[in-house]
TrEMBL record:
Domain of life, per lineage: Bacteria
Name of the molecule in the record: DAK2 domain-containing protein
Organism of derivation: Arthrobacter gallicola
Domain DhaL: 1-197
Pfam families named among the record's database cross-references: Dak2, FakA-like_M
Length: 332
């Protein structure tokens, strides 16, 4: 499992430029590859430091670290995938076909639920189809815990995931018009291939992405030709009760789009939540959050990209406070 996360980090790093180039949904800000890589790097580092034989415990720690340092929509969903996948694996010291199918199914259910407005044609669709592909394998259905059964399930997972990536171009009009597959879906495919390779002691599939529309190294940065969205991406961590979290999701939906709220860890009678939203008014979002708690680890990033770079325009460490949401927005 440590080798999986490490190999996935390397693979995402190697492909980050091309993933950035085809990143046009939900906004054409050209940072999906970078966000996935940095988020996986946090997960891999946390796993490397943990001394345990419990693969659920390992993935849970990796997922929590990824969640605290998640970047963008794609990074947040990747961290949700890891933490949710860990849940049915606690107490296990090896991965089997039935466990893999169960973990993927839990992860896809959780990933769809954290978004206020999930849509097909994204990495959510790829995860969902990967889970379905794994669950249809006889070994997963019959409780076969052999290595051969796991191999069959991993390969079925990859076939389903690759087919889902190809379909993303047809599922979102933005992708159809640009003749490109979804960047997050491709990145997630690389993560799954790293799992297959690590579990089976095989190499990553160098030809895996051959033929995917927009993924030719000769193609320009497709995202730079797309309309730029005004506003910023706000991300933070905050401790909320379940009721406050549900209310906050509804309120954030009114202030912006691409709202993601995912529980990181329990704290007293509530949870630490990782919050993500695209909004035209960062100050209003921070002001809203302060009505129920104190947001920490705040980042505010421009949605309009210059080339394929995003600009981080505010970082609030745990120990600092900003004068007001409005002041922060004006400073940005």
């Amino acid at each position: 499992m440590k080798r999986w996360l490490s190999n996935a980090e390397v693979s995402l790093g190697n492909h980050s430029d091309r993933l950035n180039a085809i990143n046009i949904f939900p906004v054409a800000d050209g940072d999906t590859g970078t966000n996935l890589y940095l988020t996986m790097r946090a997960a891999s580092a946390a796993a490397a430091e943990l001394d345990t034989q419990d693969i659920g415990e390992l993935l849970s720690a990796a997922g929590r670290s990824a969640m605290e340092q998640a970047r963008g929509n794609s990074g947040t969903l990747l961290s949700v995938f890891l933490t949710a996948m860990a849940e049915p694996l606690h107490g296990s010291t090896r991965l089997s076909a039935p466990q893999l199918a169960m973990a993927l199914d839990r992860a896809q259910l959780r990933s769809w639920s954290v978004l206020s407005d999930p849509v097909p044609g994204t990495m959510l669709s790829v995860l969902e189809e990967a889970a379905r592909g794994a669950s249809r394998v006889e070994a997963a259905q019959m409780g076969d815990d052999s290595n051969a059964g796991l191999a069959d399930t991993l390969r079925a997972m990859m076939r389903a995931a690759l087919a889902a990536v190809v379909r993303t171009e047809e599922q979102l009009q933005t992708l159809t018009d640009a003749r490109v597959v979804d960047a997050g879906g491709v990145g997630f495919l690389l993560v799954l291939d790293a799992l297959r390779a690590a579990a089976l002691g095989e190499e990553l599939q160098g030809e895996l992405l051959d033929g995917l529309h927009g993924y030719d190294v000769q193609d320009p940065h497709i995202h730079s030709r797309q309309p730029q969205l005004e506003g910023v991406e706000v991300m933070c961590t905050i401790t909320l009760s379940p009721l406050d979290a549900a209310t906050m999701r509804l309120s954030l939906d009114e202030l912006g789009e691409s709202v993601i709220m995912s529980a990181v860890s329990p704290v007293g009678e509530g949870y630490r939540w990782r919050v993500h939203v695209h909004t035209p008014d960062a100050g209003a979002v921070l002001e809203l959050l302060r009505t129920v708690g104190e947001p920490t680890n705040v980042t505010i990033t421009e949605l309009s990209a210059n080339g394929h770079q995003t600009t981080e325009i505010a970082q609030v460490p745990l120990s600092e406070d900003t004068a007001s949401g409005g002041d922060l927005a004006r400073e940005a």
